[in-house]
Amino acid sequence: MRGWESLVCSLHLEKGGGLARSVCLTARSLGQAHQTTMPIVCDFQCTVEHYRDHFEELDIPRPRKCPHCQALDSFIGHGFYWRRPLDRWRDFLIRIRRWLCKACRRTVSILPSFLLRARRYLLTVIGQVVTARFEDDASWGQIEQQGTTEANDDSVPSERTIRRWCRSFDEQAPRWLGAVQRVLADHDVALPLLDPLGEATVARTSAGALLHAATQLLAWAKTEWDHVGGYGLDDRLRFLWQWGQAQGLDRLV
Length: 253
Description:
Elements: E1 8-13, E2 19-26, E3 37-43, H1 48-53, E4 75-83, E5 94-101, E6 107-112, H2 123-134, H3 140-144, H4 159-185, H5 206-222, H6 236-246
Parallel strand pairs: 3-6
Antiparallel strand pairs: 1-2, 2-3, 4-5, 5-6
């Protein structure tokens, strides 16, 4: 799998070789070693409600290698911290598991893939916003009204918030797009995304091109790993987020 060696796909296995609920793409250390706490994004293959209600039963993986100092089998439990993410209807009080490296005394958190770093809203809500703006060319007013039927007024993101998400996504897009293109180029040079006269030139913004690239990245990944076989178009940013963290790309939005 040329071009993908830097990504450690850590599939946490149950006894007998069956795939457990949690699937993590383990982050490599790429310009992040200065951070005291580093997240590893993990797909628990469940809803936020299930994650909240069954936290004690979740199969939360213990990383084998410290992404800070590269020590092996050095992690011990370090409790958890609370987050209160929002969708358009309500908030959820959930716990985020932490591990402490005995060698370097830095921590790693296991972040569920439905959350972004430093963003309170669920990734699915933010994804709907950036998709509407950069693919559907929706106005700010149209985006603000998305999904507001029966929504809690206190949970609906404001226009100021959605503008901030879109600005951040557009600022990060060139770096992420370049990383996706490099990986896909190692595997299929015929992809339209890689053609200088192809579909990538149709997008008017880097953010729009990245959304298109995320679709192709997921399509390719589904040919490589069974655990993403059930992912659909609405899951492309969730996979991009997991993949990018494993590549050390840090912030997406």
